[in-house]
Amino acid sequence: MINAKTRYRCGLFSLGIAMLSCSPSNGADPIKLDPALERVESSRIESVARAVPSAVSVFVPGGGGGGSGVTISPEGYALTNFHVTSPAGSFMRCGMSDGNVYDAVIVGIDPVGDLAMIRLLGRSDFPKAEFGDSRAAVAGDWCMVIGNPFLLATNLKPTVTYGILSGVGRYQYPSGTLLEYGDCLQTDASVNPGNSGGPIYDAAGKLLGIVGRCSFEKRGRVNVGVGYAISINQAKNFLGYLRSGRIVDHATLGATVSTEPEGGVVVSNILESSDAYRRGLRYGSEILEIDGRVVQTANDLQNVMATLPNGWRVKMSYRSEGNTVETLVRMMGVHLEDELLKKMAGALPPPPPRPQQPGQEEKDSDQNDKDSEQDEKPEKNENQPPQRGPRGQRPGKPPVKIPQQVKDQLVERKGFANYHFNLVEQNAFIDALRSQFPAADQPTQTSSTEKKKAWLIVGETDQTPPQPVTIQVAADKMSLQIGQKTLEINKRNEMYDVVTDGTVAGLLPALDAWRRMLSDGPRKFGESYYLGTMPLGGERPLRDVMVGIAGELEVRWLSHPDTGAVEAIEVFADRDEDPAELWLLREGDSQVMPTSLDLRYGIDSILKIKIKSWEEVPASDLQWSTEKKNANNAGNIKRMNSVGASENTNRPEVKS
Amino acid sequence: MNRLAAITLTVLLATSVSDLQAEAPLGTWVRDAQKCVVKIYGAGGLKGLEAYQSGFLVSPEGHIATAWSYVLDVEPVVLLDDGRRFESKIVGFEPSLELAVLKIEATDTPFFELKEEPTVDWGDPVIAVSNLFNIATGNEPASVMQGTVASVTDLNARRGTFKTPYRGKVLILDLIANNPGAAGGAVIDSDGQLAGMLGKELRDSTTGVWLNYAVPANALRTTIGDIIAGRKTTVIDSATATLPRKDSHNPTALGLVMVPDVLETTPSYIDTVSTGSPAARASLRPDDLILLVNGQRVDSQRTLRSLLRTIDRRDNVELTVQRDTQILPVTLQP
């Protein structure tokens, strides 16, 4: 405690000393500093020096405002606020402290969380910020905000303001219809219009968050000692989603909660179609923990939910009727896709103002009324002319010309901020898929022979005694044989049924999708896109997720971020029911054959297979049962297997 | 410069052994201060009038010091740092300090001790802890902000510039501490001691500049101590008997014509003063607001009438009235 106080004094007085040493000195001797003070001060100088190079000053071409940003990768990927990029659309210019101005292209946007990813072009060795851990930050920590307040950084030198964290885990109610700041940081370091989108660093120069909002009230649109930043841990959750080039949405549990007077977060309403309901969460259940974070109030839960992307599956524990349940829960989107696009159009900041006087327009704040909490009652601001021109350009000037290198990385498509970056990820996915087992050890086939290729997988169940298993997957026909039982799928609609019925045959559509993705690629597979990253079974690291929709089935491949190895394939038939999940277990890298397959519905494993061989054979070599059995016979097999696998599958039994 | 040098020297001595790092969290010290700060909810909620403010515990028995304001026009609700919620009672207030003391039914609460001597001077670093803008709700800790005491001075010199009845010394702060809801918050020094209480928002009427200031803790100490000890309570003594109408005082006999009593708790504003009456002799004026009668709080005209009923008509009546930004003691002689 004494240390903390002393350090505080040290921190403050070293500032004072620094000022003293600047004052004209009448003596020859410079002021001597105690080594301890000097260490504090030089460490502060080092931190600022470490942090400044990654700060970005964002300018909307055509003089339509701007803001700040921060680079997070040598390739030039940078984070900023959605409300900073939205007036610019897809192209902006970014200044950095090296004195250069770089063209930048939009990558992905998160309108609800007010985050946007952009990419600065022209270098492959951009300085980047080092991520900190915003969960470890506490009120009272020293911090600094670096950015472009009042768009002053026309000389490309960002402004540094210093202060402390005034609060952590703050929740700020949605402003307008979209923006919601959950689990955010509050600071007294000066945050002014133009700082939006810029970095907040801890005292060591590590990135803590993205500055985005201030409390403005009757004192005008200037700092009143309260600035907010989106926590870097929230941003980390969204990085993969943003990299997908999509317009991303936030998560909801599908339930409302209230804080009990005695403490505890209790479900007050729940959607029966939600995954939380399928996992047994009911009215009156007490939620204890979600995504590894203990929640004790409704605000706590809201804070966690606000940091999660739509579609994530995270760990949850709750107490219901005296039982504590540990489970996994899939999140729903806060919005339907079209609803988000519609709301977004309504939430776009007004177009930038026309310049009132020559030379004044650059000094206008970033044109984002969205970062004000009190949009409706700001005092008359003389820098805020009432007339506004069309967005992104000034009247009387030609439209902003988009440079070729930006055009090369820009593909417009509905639902996407920039489809180009999704294509990049799709290509990375299919390349990784084609370089791993079982495709890796196959010589490249010509398309005519590929069609004839089929998979023959032989193994045994993990029951005692084990039962032999044979899986055959060909282009239009597949079968699963366990012991004496054989299931065949001959028509595509049977694939839908085996998944909704929750049968062991659910692994066939998963394998079929994999085989088809390998041979057809994402463009021919159906409607395919890269979703982003999410945990697998509630566990990090975040896996890359590729989505392919073919007919009524939506298939997701979850691959390890480092090896690219597919670890799970999920097949969704009905949105309101559990998908079939085929988990692949490997001992070794992605080149080797998986050692076992694990088929799960919900959180229950219903079939585990140890693989003995997995071969690619001509379709003509496969043997099909003579008596055509319907795949729905799987129901019998499931009952049989559930003895060996998991007892508590509470899904309805299928009719045979 | 000498002053800074001297303090620097102290720092040198204190830090010679400690391992200084760039990351210098204020840590437990700030957290301890947050635990003493409470959120207060009361009247208001209309445009420009926030229904919340801050306060801090000053005794282990749940006494809370806060700013005397319209928020306290109803019995306020108090939320402690741990999220516990209490109904509170206003046990005393001192209009000339813009100070009120509340009491909640809690024991073993953490609290700030009030020192007799000033704990800070100009140039000293301070932390302000308050629930400005009502950012923290429930069990969320109050906001902390850092800065320096820019000067210790009195607002008295510029009477009329700032609309406040407070006439003593104030700590002028270089941080933007006095925001909506911050009034009643704590200012602490680098030893974690209470240095002052954040005042209500004040704006220079000529320049429009908002003032950031605190009332020093030592200026509040005696009054808070007296209120806690019961020596200076403004709570109405219910044990005092109501006298027969003919034997007691009443507003009319004293020459007080109040504004029409149309609300359940109509404030005790004087409408007119009858010529030649005790009120006229004491120079009371229209628009004076009666705050105290014989040291007891007047929250409405109804209370005023019932308090006067307890005083013998031959005895003097001690009033405390607010006239614009002045707090005046007035004695009415029958």
How would you explain this protein's 3D organization?
- The complex is a heterodimer of chains A (656) and B (334).
- Chain A is α+β, with helices and mostly antiparallel strands and 656 residues long.
- Chain A has 13 helices and 31 strands.
- An eleven-stranded antiparallel sheet of chain A has the order 24-23-22-21-31-30-29-28-27-26-25. Chain A has a six-stranded antiparallel barrel with strand order 1-2-3-6-5-4. Chain A has a six-stranded antiparallel β-barrel with strand order 7-8-9-12-11-10.
- In chain A, helix 1 (2-22) packs across helix 2 and helix 9 (419-434) packs across helix 12.
- By secondary structure, chain B is an alpha+beta fold.
- Chain B has six helices and 20 strands.
- Chain B has helices at residues 2-15, 27-36, 217-229, 251-254, 278-281, 301-308, and strands at 37-41, 52-57, 63-67, 77-79, 85-94, 99-104, 125-130, 143-154, 169-173, 186-189, 194-198, 202-203, 210-211, 213-216, 256-258, 270-273, 289-293, 296-297, 317-323, 326-332.
- In chain B, strand 17 (289-293) and strand 18 (296-297) form a beta hairpin.
- At the A-B interface, helix 1, helix 2 and strand 8 of A face helix 1, helix 2 and strand 8 of B.
List the defining traits of the structure above:
heterodimer, A: 656 residues, alpha+beta, Thrombin, subunit H, outer membrane lipoprotein receptor (LolB), chain A, 11-stranded antiparallel β-sheet, 6-stranded antiparallel β-barrel, 13 helices, B: 334 residues, 2 domains, 16% helix, disordered N terminus
Secondary-structure topology with pairs:
The complex is a heterodimer of chains A (656) and B (334).
Chain A: H1 2-22, H2 35-51, E1 55-59, E2 66-71, E3 77-80, H3 82-85, E4 91-96, E5 101-110, E6 115-120, E7 142-147, E8 159-175, E9 179-187, E10 199-202, E11 207-214, E12 227-231, H4 232-243, E13 251-252, E14 255-259, E15 265-270, H5 275-278, E16 286-290, E17 293-294, H6 298-305, E18 313-320, E19 323-330, E20 332-333, H7 337-347, H8 404-407, H9 419-434, H10 447-450, E21 453-461, E22 468-473, E23 478-482, E24 485-489, H11 492-500, H12 507-525, E25 527-536, E26 539-550, E27 553-559, E28 566-572, E29 580-585, E30 596-601, E31 604-618, H13 634-644
Antiparallel strand pairs in A: 1-2, 1-4, 2-3, 3-6, 4-5, 5-6, 7-8, 7-10, 8-9, 9-12, 10-11, 11-12, 13-20, 14-15, 15-16, 16-17, 16-18, 18-19, 21-22, 21-31, 22-23, 23-24, 25-26, 26-27, 27-28, 28-29, 29-30, 30-31
Chain B: H1 2-15, H2 27-36, E1 37-41, E2 52-57, E3 63-67, E4 77-79, E5 85-94, E6 99-104, E7 125-130, E8 143-154, E9 169-173, E10 186-189, E11 194-198, E12 202-203, E13 210-211, E14 213-216, H3 217-229, H4 251-254, E15 256-258, E16 270-273, H5 278-281, E17 289-293, E18 296-297, H6 301-308, E19 317-323, E20 326-332
